[in-house]
Structure formats: C-alpha cells, structure tokens
Amino acid sequence: MERGKMAEAESLETAAEHERILREIESTDTACIGPTLRSVYDGEEHGRFMEKLETRIRNHDREIEKMCNFHYQGFVDSITELLKVRGEAQKLKNQVTDTNRKLQHEGKELVIAMEELKQCRLQQRNISATVDKLMLCLPVLEMYSKLRDQMKTKRHYPALKTLEHLEHTYLPQVSHYRFCKVMVDNIPKLREEIKDVSMSDLKDFLESIRKHSDKIGETAMKQAQQQRNLDNIVLQQPRIGSRRKSKKDVYTIFDTEIESTSPKSEQDSGILDVEDEEDDEEVPGAQDLVDFSPVYRCLHIYSVLGARETFENYYRKQRRKQARLVLQPPSNMHETLDGYRKYFNQIVGFFVVEDHILHTTQGLVNRAYIDELWEMALSKTIAALRTHSSYCSDPNLVLDLKNLIVLFADTLQVYGFPVNQLFDMLLEIRDQYSETLLKKWSGIFRNILDSDNYSPIPVTSEDMYKKVVGQFPFQDTELEKQPFPKKFPFSEFVPKVYNQIKEFIYACLKFSEDLHLSSTEVDDMIRKSTNLLLTRTLSNSLQNVIKRKNIGLTELVQIIINTTHLEKSCKYLEEFITNITNVLPETVHTTKLYGTTTFKDARHAAEEEIYTNLNQKIDQFLQLADYDWMTGDLGNKASDYLVDLIAFLRSTFAVFTHLPGKVAQTACMSACKHLATSLMQLLLEAEVRQLTLGALQQFNLDVRECEQFARSGPVPGFQEDTLQLAFIDLRQLLDLFIQWDWSTYLADYGQPNCKYLRVNPVTALTLLEKISREMRDTSRKNNMFAQFRKNERDKQKLIDTVAKQLRGLISSHHS
Questions:
Q1: What's the chain's average pLDDT?
Q2: Which segments constitute the Exocyst complex component EXOC6/Sec15 N-terminal domain (predicted)?
Q3: Which of 360, 396, 467, 801 is the most buried (most CB within 10 A)?
C-alpha cells in the first residue's frame, strides 16, 4: 500500500518537473535551451518527457491551425497585395539596376581619383612617419657627428660630455635601429680612446712642466723679489701705481676656468710663451705662465669614467719621480751662482705648480702629500747646499748664495711652505762665510803690510791732514799746531787696516740682513767674527811680518808705533759696531772686542823681535872682531869693529824716540847685556887656549868703550849707572887680572860687599889657565915675563897657587 503511495508521489513529481521543463523550453531563447534539455537527459524519465513533448506539440499545432483558419482571408489578401508589390519591386529593381549602371559608369573616374587620393594619403602618412622617425634619429646623428668633430679637434672633455648625453638621452629613444646598436657597441671604445688621449696629453704636460720648472720658478722668485722691494718702499711712502697680481687673484682666474664645462684653451701646450714678457715692467704671475687645462681635463675625464683614484695615483707617482730629479743638484753647482739659481728655480717651479694644483683641484693632491714632498725636498736641498757651499772660497759668492737662499725661502713661504730649517742652515753657512771672509782679509792684510813703507805718513797740506784723520780716529793737539809739512807718527797701514776692519764688519752685516735675526744676535755675530779677524787673521799677518827674515829695526819700531795707535782705536770700533747694530755695549751677554789683546801681543812680538834683531846685529859686528890674543903690544884705542858697533847702536837707539819709554830702555838694556855676554864668551872661547896680558889690555879698552856708551845715556830714562851694570861682570873680571889683585879676591870671596863680587871662580880659573899656558910656552920671544926670567919660577908658582885655591873655591861651592 505504502509502495503504491510512494510510486504515485514520484509520478506526480516527475509530471510536475516535465511540465516545468516544457514551460521553460517555450519561454527560453533557443540559444539557451541546451542546459534545459540536458536536465531532461540527466533524469531517467526522458521517455515520458518525449511523450509529454509530443502531446504539447500536437496541442500547439491545433492552436496554430485554429489561428490560421481564423486569419486565412487576411492572409490571402496579403498574398495578393504582395504579388502586386512584387511587380512594382521588379520595376524598381530595374530602375535601380539602370541607375547603378549609370552611376558606375559615371563614378569610374571618381573611383580612379579616389584610388589615387588613397595612394597619396598613404604616401603622405608614410612620409610623415618617416619624418618623425628621422627627427627622432637626427639629434642622435648630430650628436655623434659632434662627438667625432670633438674627438678630431682633441676637445676630449666636451666629447666625453657629448658621449654621456648620446648614451643616456638620445640612443634610448631610437634603440631599435641597427645603426644605434653600432653606436652603442662603439661607445666603450670611444671612452677608452678619450681616456688614452687625455692621459697622453697629461704626459706631455708633465714633461713640459719638468722642462720649464726653472722658468716658472724664476718668475715666481722675481715676483717675490718685486714684492719685497715694494714692501721696502711702503715702509717709506704709500703704495702708488699698479699693484702686482696676488696669489689669490691668480687662483680666482683659474677657479673660473675650472667651473667652465669647456676649458678656455683646447691646445695642450702646457707652457705659454713668455719670452716677450721678460721686458715688461710687471712680472707676470707664476701661474699665468702655465696652462693647466690638460690636468683639469684629464682629472674630469677620469672622474667621469670612474677612474679618478687611478689618475690621482699616477699623477702623484710621476710628480714624485720628477721631484727626485729636480732635487738632484748638478755636480758643478758650486762653481757659479747661476748653478744655484737654476737649482732653486726648478724647486720653486715644482712646488708652485703643486701648490696651484692643491688649491684649484679637489683632492688630486692633498696637504699631507704636499708636506711629504716638501719634507723630502727640504732635507735634500739642505744636504746639497751644505755639500756644495763647503766648496765656495769666494765670500762674494757665499753672500750672493745667502741672498739667493733667502729669496728662495721667502718665495716658498709666500705659498705656505715652512722654511725655518733653511734659515737655520743659513746660520751654518754664516760660519763658513766668516771663514771665507777671514781668508780674503788675510790676503788684504798681507798686501797692505807688504806694500807699506813703514815710515810716518807725511802731509803737506790741510786737506791731506784731514783726509788721514777722516780715515783713522787720531787726535794730537801738538801735531795740529805744527806747521806743514809734518808727519803722523804711524805709517799708511794703520788707516788702511782700520778701514779694512770696518769693511769686514760691513761684510758681516750684509750677511745678517733678511735672516730675521734680532739686533742682539746680529751684534753678537759681528763681534765674534771681528774678534776672529783681530785675534787670528790680523794677528797672524802681523806676526808673519814681524818674523820675516829681512825685516829691519826701523820697520819693527814702526810696527810697534802702529799697533799702539791701532790698540787705541779699538774703542772706536766698539762704537762703530754699536752704531750699526743699535746694541749698547753694556747689554748683557754682549761680546767684547779682543783688539787690544791682539795689538798688545803683536807689539810684544815686535819688541822681542827688536831685541833679537839687535842681538843679531851685535853678533854680526862681533864676527868682525880679530883679536891677537898673543900680542905683547899695549894698544891705546878701542877696536875698529867695536867703534862701528857703538856707532850703530847710537843711531839705532836714536830711532827709538817714538817708542814707549820702557820698550826703548828694555831694548837698550838687552843690547848691552847681550854685548857684554858675547864679549865674555869671546874672551872665554875654548879655541883661545892662550892669551897675553897685552891682549887683555886691548880687550879692556874695548870694554871701556862699551862702558862709555852706557854712561852716555843712549836712551833716556835710565837711572845713573844702571846701564853700566850690564858690563859689571866684565869690568870686575878684567880689573882682577890687570891689577893682579888675587889676594883681595881670595880673601873677600863670599862676602856681600867684596870688590870682585861678580867674578865667578870658574870664569877666573878658565882665564887664568889661558895666561898660564902662555907663560909656560917659552918658545915665544915676546913673552911679557921674559925680562923677569929669574922670577919666572916664582910667578908660575904663584899662578899655580891661585889656580889651586880657585879650584878649592869651586869644589866647596859645588859641595
């Protein structure tokens, strides 16, 4: 039962579903009926559905038939009307066909024209497209042509800029063209070409700079000298006229050049021609001589190409090599000042270029790199100057070298380089300069002393007198009162030497200029050098003159007088140095002049030489002595040689009137003592083995002549009988033998007031033995004791007794 109900329910559901599908088919568009039919076939009752569908179709056919039957008459009427219309339509068709034929015939030319117009429009469109494409490509081609022109004219930095625009702006717009691909492939090669060519230009620039560094340095040093001259003028009057272009002005010019995208000069000459500029009144700026555009271009090119570090390293390496070449001095640099000047010019030129590069480029060189190069240059320059300046023997060359070094230092100091070591080194050269000056003045003093006549300077007029006084500080009221002609006490070498000392001081002062020394330091330097001149150079020159073999007593006397006046002039030299250095002598640590000591030593040497010379002259006269020691004749006058000797001494001591009193007295006493000693030696000479009392008498006459000379006072100032004491030894000895007063001698020997106090027993014994030998020689017929032959034995016995007693005195004295 239940199964029946369930089957009935399913049948109702199926029927309802089929009804829904049919309604959907009827109401749905034919294009969308597929899904509906698919739902029928998906089910299991499609047979029933087909039945339902057939039934529905039959129903619709019946309705259509009913409708057709209802509208049949209207349909027939419509067909009739349609047939009528067909006839009319045929007529219309014929008319249209005819009209079309006529239209086709008439429009054939128009069609041809339209076809031509179509082709023209197509060509016009193609031309317009071609023009647009060409307008797009033309800037690329123009830029490439411009690039080629710039490469050809060596405008490499603009070419690089053009290449950048071409690559990044123009080529991307036309990248689909084949020629663009060729250009793109060629761009790296062009960059390398620009890089290589710019590097070649840089190499040419560096080589040109190396060759012309001396010219650049010369100009910079002229500029510094010109500025220093202007500074000196400014100290006295305001600056007038045109001013020199400053370093800052020069940098401004070059900064403007760098900021420009294209350098002003496209020719990489490196050095501008300045030969015609040398005659101009204004010296051009050192940097004005150099075209730095190759450096700037190469730097910018390498910066753009991303190889700036490579460029910086290469530039610094090459400049270091050039620095070492510049700092290598020529082997003969010391021979002339031009050698030093060229050496300095090259160094200055090198660092002027580097300083300009430092201030006009960003990072190509830095301060540390410049300082490193300068330290190396400073050490090598100072070492070279020390070596080569040591060969200089000309003080003028050393002074010129000093001025050149100062200018060199001042020039580099303008560019900010520290130069203290150069000035320290100049202080070392100062000592060498002093030595060369001393050598030069040694020759000057030698010439003055050799050419001097060693005679007082005669003057015959007031002008001549004032001229000498103007050359040498001398004041003598007595001499001024004397009428002309008159004579100065000193010879010509006094004012000449005095003036040469002043010239030496001036020469020392010249070296101290521009060394940035204080007045005290300059004063100390001058005084020390002057002391060396006085104590060493002048002293040696005077000593050499004094020690000459052929120097005469007159010359020695004049030297003593001259040195006395020079000694007095030392205070004027002190004042002279004080005036030129403005340092008072009372200042602490001020060096004193040793001129007084120098002239005193020279005077003492001259005095000693006078004493020695006098003694030598006395010896020469004594060599003429020809005593006959065996004579028995008693003479009545002094020997000729001794008379001549006394005459010589009188004339000599007459010349000593201008000498200080003690010098003349000492010379006279020394001569008398030497004469007495020489006569004693002559009497006791070992070669004279025998002598007679007659010869002793003649010798006594000669001694009396000497005593007479001593009593006559050849030199004033001696106390009474003081000069005679020089002959006291001879006098007592001769009196002892002539008076044969042996008893008194032997009895009073050793007593402080004995008569023969100055007779030495040894001397008495020696002379007694000579007389004894003569007495024993019986072969001589003119023996004085021959007439007393009967007393010979007693006399000889007495002599032997005296000799024995003398030997006893000698023995007791030695014990």
A1: 78
A2: 52-221
A3: 360
Q: Average pLDDT in the 552-563 region?
A: 82
Higher-pLDDT residue of 632, 83: 83
Distance of CA 246 to the CA centre of its chain: 23
Give dist(CA 294, CA 163) in Å, integer: 19
- Does residue 245 carry a pLDDT above 70? no
153 φ/ψ angles, rounded to the nearest 5 degrees: -90, 10
Q: How far apart are CA 752 and CA 735, in angstroms?
A: 18
**Average pLDDT, integer, range 368-392:** 84
**257: closest CA among 361, 155, 167, 162?**
361
3-state SS record for 239-263: CCCCCCCCHHHHHHHHHHHHHCCCC
Strand, helix or coil for residue 785:
coil
Q: Is the pLDDT of residue 741 over 60?
A: yes
What was the pLDDT predicted at 270? 42
Distances (CA, A) of 455 to 25, 447, 492, 542: 169, 16, 8, 16
CA gap 336, 241 in Å, rounded: 36
Q: Are 393 and 438 in contact (CB under 8 A)?
A: no
The pLDDT score that the predictor gives to residue 282 is 54
Type of residue at 561? I
At residue 619 the predicted structure's pLDDT band, cuts being 50, 70 and 90, is: confident
Q: What is the mean pLDDT of residues 349-369?
A: 84
Half-sphere exposure of 353 (CA within 13 A, CB side): 33
Query: How far is Cα 437 from Cα 116, in angstroms, rounded to an integer?
Result: 113
Q: Is the pLDDT of residue 262 over 80?
A: no
Nearest to 80 by CA among 72, 90, 91: 72
Q: Read off the pLDDT of residues 170-224 as tens digits, 9 standing for 90 and up.
A: 777 777 777 777 777 777 777 777 778 778 877 888 888 787 777 888 888 888 8
Token pair belonging to 421:
């070591």
Structure tokens at 642: 């001794």
Q: What per-residue string of b and e applies to 527-563 under the rule 16 or more CB within 10 Å gives b?
A: bebbbbbbbebbbebbeebbeeeebebebbbbbbbbb
Where residue 683 falls (left for φ over 0; alpha for ψ -120 to 50; beta otherwise) is alpha
Q: Which of 273, 286, 282 is nearest to 355 (CA)?
A: 286
Give yes or no for residue 495 having a pLDDT over 90.
yes
Peptide bond into 263 cis (omega under 30): no
| The two three-digit tokens of residue 799, written as one number | 């002599």
Tell me if residue 459 falls in helix, strand or coil.
Answer: strand
Q: What would you measure as the largest C-alpha separation in the chain, in angstroms? A: 244
Q: What end-to-end distance do the CA atoms of the chain give, in Å?
A: 199
Count H helices, E strands: the chain?
A: 27, 2
For residue 779, the model assigns a pLDDT of: 36
Q: Are 531 and 539 in contact (CB under 8 A)?
A: no
What mean pLDDT do residues 44-67 have? 83
CB-side exposure of 413: number of CA atoms within 13 Å? 15
Q: What is the DSSP letter of 719?
A: P
- Phi, psi angle pair for 369, to nearest 5°: -65, -45
Q: Is the peptide bond before 752 cis (omega within 30 degrees of 0)?
A: no
